[in-house]
Amino acid sequence: MNRRSAAEAYEKVPTSIFESSSAAAASLAKEVRELIEARNKEGKPAILGLATGSTPVPFYRELIRLHREEGLSFKNVITFNLDEYYGLGSDHPESYYRFMCDQLFDHIDIPKENIHLPSGTVPGDQVFEHCRQYEEMIDAAGGVDFQILGIGRTGHIGFNEPGSSRESLTRRITLDRITRQDAAADFRGEENVPRFAITMGVGTILRAKQIVLMAWGENKAGVVSRAVEGPVTDAVSASFLQDHDTARFFIDQAASRELTRIKLPWLVGPVKWSPSETRRAVCWLSSTYKRPVLKLTDEDYNEHGLSDLLSEQGPAYQLNIRIFNQLQHTISGWPGGKPNADDTFRPERAKPYPKRALIFSPEPQDAIVSIGGTIDRLIEQGHDVCLVSMTSGNLRVPDSEADKFASILQELATASPEGWSEQTEYARHILRLLEEKGPFGEDPPAVRQLKSLILRGELRDAAHALGLPPEKVQFLNLAFYEAGRYRRFKPTHDDTAQIVTLLREFKPHQIYATGDAADPSSVAALCYRGIEAALAELQSEDWSAACSIWLYRGKEKALEPWEIDMAMPMSPNQLERKARSHTRYQSLTTIEKDVVRSNQSTAEQYDSLGLANYEAMESFQRNRRA
Ligand code: GLP
After folding, report:
1. Which of 50, 54, 55 for a ligand 1 pocket mutation test, highest count of atoms within 8 Å of Cβ?
2. Which residues are catalytic?
3. Could you tell me which residues come within 8 angstroms of residue 224 by beta carbon, excluding any fewer than 6 positions away?
4. What does each C-alpha distance from 347 to 45, 338, 395, 464, 600 come to in angstroms?
5. How confident is the model at residue 397 (pLDDT cuts 50, 70, 90)?
6. Contacts of 110 by beta carbon, 8 Å cutoff, 6+ apart
7. pLDDT tens, residue by residue, 273-295
8. 557 band by pLDDT with thresholds 50, 70 and 90
9. Residue 588 and which of 118, 127, 188, 221 are 20 to 30 A apart at CA?
10. Is the pTM of this model over 0.70?
11. How far is the CA of 612 from the centre of ligand 1 (A)?
């Protein structure tokens, strides 16, 4: 069996893994363009099924480019969107109608009457009829030629949450808890996320002639593998695509990492045993067998498809020791390097000491939540630590927090005898703005500013709990964040320029960053790309070549032991100190706080591989710059 057909034995839907989301989007846009042009020649309209969410945004940007630069016309295109939040009017900033206008329709020449979305405001007693008519309209147009899909973390397509049947049609459904949590940042708090939506059914989607599902970023990797390789089940509605004749998945590398051909390539075909593949295979064997690395036998390797690894690098005894030592050398309680120690096998070099360590936090909470233990240790070990919040994070702060601060100020100002009229006026102004815009309205600049200040205070407070003085906490307030909304930010060169200035001033010996494998439209990924672009500009500067870059993960899936280049162990007391610093973030959700649990799980994995048994570990990957 060749490698491709072996992969197909696992992958029940044709799946293309692209270098990047933009490469995938360009390839998809090319297909759609060809369809539109072919239909034009036949004198027929092209019927497109469209999706919302951050995933299709690069695809829509490419369609807009094709329209502007290459004259692709949408006059003869009819669109049907998958879904709409129930309860939101088309003018609501988070309605899918608004989203589609902002991201596509307002920038192309599609006639308004060709655009169809379910209505979010149809009265309850007319929902059934509205949904029936939506189905009828799709059929009357001749059915969807090309359906674009994203995938939710629950495996949903459209809003077909777990439990949706293969035959389901357009209908009103209740949103799953996870889906609502994922939309919480868009709506500034889970409580503001609508509870219902109207969505095309699985059956409606499966009637499309062609279907492409797109997925980017590692937090989609698990659900992609369940949809592509798992059983067809209503627990993962995307798995029904396995039964469709032409459905395909277009994914990026980060979203592919749980597919068998990527995760366990030796099950699929011959493997070139690079050091990292070898480490992965040994760790996998150890965890599958629940046996420490040093106890794996030749038979274990042979029985699990690893006989060629054994013949190349065995016997087991020697291979085990080599990998055990490699894993052992990743463990270091000296993230800044251990001064005056032999650093041959340590993750970080000993000199210079102390180091200037620059910690990048995409939003104010990210770094402290993810690597608070390491920050703590770096400070304790005498390094010059600077923590930089790259964006203000103000879109995450619920109105109730802004209301609380403005009310306190108002009360304080009113109780003060004289000279506080400006403060009173300011507080009243904020309270008025909050009331005028209502729970769903967009925050006016003054409200965003107050929310930024609240988060600044929380970050300073949390940093202080780890021993970092306020002057060592900086706020970049990158402009892309201030000008945008979640799922549709557009960074510019100005953002990079700000990062360049900061790097040039601080000249770090170490950088800690995150977002390399995140959804490319997420704040973390955009910040990471800004750092990469800034470093590329600065590569000729002396300090830059010598600077080590450590990548950490946020609330997405933690690094696996075989991916870890530095594991920073924590004692129970140190973990508690980190967890305590999180309590300073009143606006944090429990998902973010779960990182502490994931630190414990990394330590458990090291323990079961047969290494030291620590309470918790933060983990890092070295950025291997070209
Ligand atoms: C929502 C939409 C889906 C979309 C999903 C994933 O649930 N109804 O159509 O696929 O979000 O969103 P994102 O692409 O932002 O990850």
Report:
1. 55
2. 161
3. 151, 215, 249, 251, 255, 256, 258, 259
4. 59, 10, 37, 27, 21
5. confident
6. 74, 75, 77, 79
7. 999 999 999 999 999 889 999 99
8. confident
9. 221
10. yes
11. 41
